Amino acid sequence: MRGSIPGSATSSHPIIQPRTRRGEVARYLRRSPLAAAGGGIVLVYALTAIAAPFLAPHPPITQFLEDRLGPPSETFPLGLDQLGRDILSRVLYGARLSLVVGLVVVVMSGVLGTTVGVVAGFVGGRVDDILMRVTDIFFAFPALILAMAIAAALGPSLTNTMIAIATVTWPVYARLSRAQALVLRRQEFIEAARAIGLSDARIMVRHLLPNSLSPLIVQASFNMGEAILIAAGLSFIGFGAQPPTPEWGVMVSEGRDYMTTQWWVPTFPALAILTAVTGFNLLGDGLRDLLDPRLRRAV
Amino acid sequence: MSRYVLGRIASTVLVLLGVSVLTFFIAHVVPGDPVLVALGEHAREEQIVAYRRAYGLDRPVPVQYAVYLGRLTRGDLGISIRTRRPVADDLQEFLPATIELSGAAWLVALLLGIPAGILSAVFKDRIFDHLSRLGALIGASFPVFWLGLLLLGAFYYRLRWLPGPGRLDVVISPPPLRTGLLLVDAVLAGDGEALRNALRHLVLPALTLGLFSTAVIARMTRSAMLEVLFQDYIRTARAKGLREGRVVALHALKNAMIPTLTIIGISFGSLLSGAVLTETIFAWPGLGRYATASAISLDFPAVMGVTLVVAVVYTQVNLVVDLIYARLDPRVRYE
Asked: Which residues constitute the domain of residue A271?
């Protein structure tokens, strides 16, 4: 963890430190092939999402009606769906949507949860009590059920899906960052910051937050996977993205009747969900082992 | 009752009150016009006025909440737009199927997850550990709805080993309704055929729903066991000359189960979430399927009723888990 005593942040071996850190990461990746695999999957997935318009052989909603439900072939490597659309192109564009959903959810719930948690932990007392009771209320709902109720209240759309998922996932960030803030607020560098007269807000943003990031980054990775999974689930039951959007959950839902006859229709989008979520979960596990030395030893 | 137990119950009551505030907020404040959501876009003017008056929607929001809470305490969850029956009656009818399904899935998760986690920790870094960790990882990432489709496709459509959607074959007449739990009702009626059939119908949905929790419980059990296995008292037990099996089963497991218990309670929430998707795929007449069917027809009172009831059930399950936890671990009680 980085120390951030005001004024001395850059004084300790600025050149040697990053190099050792990088060496450590490289060593760790060699030792933990699963974490490396997770990182690899996430990287490929992100690049695919960004480059989808260049990689996709066809636009995602163009129909080749004469070939509808066609099996995987040279022209259509993953086959065609019930409306004659190229499944490969739709899966690639779907990566784009799910990446956006994941990122937006992580930013929304991360910012909200961390703010609540840091304030609760740092200020303490009654503020802490109230904020944590509010957090408990959100924990009382199973995620998908609450997300469904919110999505139903707001109306089914991809934007509302993101709002719904962020609403159900922020409390984890709040608990994690509160725990960090509770430990840190008693440390000397925070007291030093207070002694030189910095405002509470400045201490929280500039000194507490940067030192609380490790568990939050790990959570962000798990949260990406979770968001993709919940979004797909909501779309599957008709609450999220609406057809003809090339969203993976919608694609599996639309293709479910062809499971036994034209297996490729639901299978490839489902595999895409599985791969992306597994990637983020692997990366989360790996990051946790890397950033939390306590766990690195035991597990 | 100890102070801990009373405190825990008090905080549960507080959470439930908060739950009612949140569901009220989602139902009455989030939608631009709750009346339009409740009655649909094509409601006539006089219907809207009547609805507003009947539900007190013309009064200030805090008064509305008080009225809402008063109705909740009387068990009044409003009238379902789709079924035109009181939501509470609907829920009573659909809840048992969900309890049966999530109970069975919980059992699957415990019976598979805990042994897998223990063996994984005992054989750390051996082939079983690697396979079980990989399995748990994929299990935690698997879309529930796809697993359901896969199992249904393989074991029902292809192999014909297990029955398809629903709780009973159509040719089997259900046992007389007593608890709503088919297995219990079949046993009470002494109806062996219905019991066997209901059990066979339960296998695929329970496996589908249980996989995610199995993975989570296996992961937690493994890391809790590893944490315990390096403790001094385990070394002492070994030094006394106890057999390894005894050390693991008696000394380590007991303490490793304490943190695992919390995850088991929390995993019930993911079961209730997963039930929405599983019930949709297996045409299981439970709360989840009721909720999705209601939501698709914009039946808002029904959706909010399910949300509320599920939160109440989940909160109580976690209360029970915490009380068991306090019973097992005196440190929790005296903190």
From this structure: 31-52+81-296
Polymer length of chain B: 335
What's the rounded mean pLDDT across residues A195-211?
Answer: 88
- Residue A154, in any domain of the structure: yes
What's the pLDDT tens digit per position in A136-154? 899 888 888 888 888 888 8
B7 touches A: beta carbon within 8 Å: no
How far, CA to CA in Å, does B55 sit from each of B18, B217, B258? 21, 44, 47
Q: Indicate which of A229, A230, A235, A236 best probes the interface with B, i.e. most B CBs within 10 Å of its own CB.
A: A236
> For residue A281, which residues of chain B lie inside 8 Å, CB to CB?
137, 140-141
Q: Are A258 and A210 in contact (CB under 8 A)?
A: no
Structural contact between residues A169 and A109, judged by C-beta atoms closer than 8 angstroms: yes
Looking at this protein, which amino acid is placed at residue A298?
Answer: A
Q: How many domains does chain A have?
A: 1
Whether the CA torsion B26, B32, B34, B38 is positive or negative: it is: negative
- Confidence class of residue A14 from pLDDT cuts 50, 70 and 90? very low
Per-residue burial over A53-75, b if 16 or more Cβ lie within 10 Å, else e, is eeebebebeebeeeeebbeeeee
Q: A52, A41, A157, A137: which is closest to A94 by C-alpha?
A: A52
Judge whether A57 and A70 are in contact, CB under 8 Å.
no
Cβ atoms of residues B234 and B240 within 8 Å: no
Determine contact: A154 vs chain B, CB below 8 A. Answer: yes
Inside any domain, residue A57 = no
Find, among A18, A38, A7, A46, the residue nearest to A198 by Cα. Answer: A7
How close B58 gets to chain A, by Cα (Å)? Answer: 20
**B160 at interface of A, judged by CB pairs closer than 8 A:** no
What rounded mean pLDDT belongs to chain A? 85
Q: Is B226 on the interface with A (CB under 8 A)?
A: yes
Query: Residue B290's closest CA among B145, B94, B97?
Result: B94
Q: Which domains does chain B have, with CATH numbers?
A: 2-72 (no CATH), 88-328 (1.10.3720.10)
CATH label of the domain that carries residue A169: 1.10.3720.10
In a domain, A104, yes or no: yes
